[in-house]
Amino acid sequence: MGHGPSIDELHFAETPSVTKVPGPNSESLLARQEAVDSSAVAYPKRIPIGIDEAKGATIKDVDGNVFLDFFGGIGVLNVGHANPYVMDAVHEQMDKVVHTIDFPTEPRIELIEKLREIAPGDLKGASNVVFGGPSGSDAIEGSIKLAKHNTGRHGMLAFEGAYHGATAGALSLTAGKKYKEGYAPMLPDVVHVPYPYPARDPQLQGDIGGFCPAEDCCQNTGCATALDAVQRKFEDPYSGHESPAGIWVEPIQGEGGVVVPPKGFMKGLRDIADDNDALLIADEIQTGLGRTGEWFGSDHFGVTPDAVTMAKALGGTGLPIGAMLYHEKFDTWGPGGHIGTFRGNVPAMVGGIKAIEYIENHNLLAHADSVGRYLRDRFREIAAETDRIIEVRGEGLFIGVEFVDAAGAPDKEIIKTIQKTSYKNGVLVWSAGRNGNVLRLIPPLVITETQAEVGADIICDAITTALD
């Protein structure tokens, strides 16, 4: 099979091609869906298309309109839709065996070995992998069990702005109130403390190392305040809770608004976890597998977490699989210590192997870094001309653009306008942020330079029009 086709060969086209949207066939399919599908369906409410097929960084709807996909299944399709290098291997595997629970297969062992090779920091070659259910939420549930089992404690610490999933344990760690409404009570002794937010945190003058618990303070007030809050939850005898079993953190917050913390934050968390015999668990479900221009978001901060949760892009081509990679010293489970019926989804394991290989063979980490810098620069050109954009941020092809209204308040409506205008002109984008006021761009890593330029032109035009 070789290295597979170049990224230039993966797509329907380099540019979008749309007429009237939604077209009549999409309208018909949307009406049929509304009549029979769950009222929990969300995405078609904002982007009304019926999908027929997809390739690379492009999607074709049932009316023949071709769109540039700038949200890639919310970080699932890192090597693009229907990548032949991945799909051919998956199809071959499906003719052999699909479901194996946790009996050994070549793909299972090979995927674990691949993940050990690319693991962040000291986890390389010193880690184990456990598969459970097929989603990121399932991976988080496994991490909760790992932390509790190894510490004997049940408290948990997460951050404001966090999203970790929607099952019971994962939802307890998720910070968004809208996801929890009507589902209380959550797990006990789960606390949320501030996450550094450089665009909004007030900055104090002078040396702040006096109250920052990090060994090497980076002098960022928001970072110091957050780390101080974390430390107090562990070490203050009147913190109000049991010392947590672990710290759950997104190295870069996704749903919270693509928020990139200061460089010292993850190192500070590592120090606090070590001082208190707690696990540091990095939720890399959205930031992992090359999304940020590194294999994992943790790599940007030079920190080794105790465990890494993965899903989304791990299945290579959208096949569902969740996993957790953790330091081998925490492999204290007995047989059946963590289970899940679909932990033997062999085609998804093959998809993961081939996706990692494709990223390696086509140098997509560097490509994601380069194209991501280009896109952020394009948006910063607009930001320099207006006070309605307070920050353009991100790493690699994980990009957020935060908007406010004329009074400086979060502007959710302008995101909807930009999204709608971009859609009508052939580019699909999504939103994020605590107030829905962040434009979130997470295109497949295989997006070409031409597609990035064309897509940026369309999105920037939509922004400029919305700001007028």
Describe the secondary-structure layout.
Elements: H1 24-36, H2 43-46, E1 51-55, E2 58-61, E3 66-69, H3 72-75, H4 84-94, H5 106-118, E4 127-131, H6 136-151, E5 156-159, H7 168-173, H8 177-180, E6 190-193, H9 221-235, E7 246-249, H10 264-275, E8 279-283, E9 307-310, E10 323-327, H11 346-361, H12 364-383, E11 389-395, E12 398-403, H13 412-424, E13 427-428, E14 430-432, E15 438-441, H14 449-467
Parallel strand pairs: 3-13, 5-6, 5-7, 7-8, 8-9
Antiparallel strand pairs: 1-2, 2-3, 4-10, 9-10, 11-12, 12-15, 14-15
Helix pairs in contact: 4-11, 5-11, 9-10, 12-14, 13-14
Q: Can you walk through the features of this model?
A:
It is built from 14 helices and 15 strands. By secondary structure, the chain is an alpha/beta fold. It folds into two domains: 7-76 and 363-467, Aspartate Aminotransferase, domain 1 (Alpha-Beta Complex); 87-361, Aspartate Aminotransferase, domain 2, CATH 3.40.640.10. The strands form three sheets. Strands 4-10-9-8-7-5-6 form a seven-stranded mixed beta sheet, sandwiched between helices. It has a four-stranded mixed beta sheet with strand order 1-2-3-13. Helix 4 runs antiparallel to helix 11 (346-361), helix 5 crosses helix 11 (346-361) and helix 13 (412-424) packs across helix 14. The chain is globular. It starts with 23 loop residues before the first helix and ends with a helix.
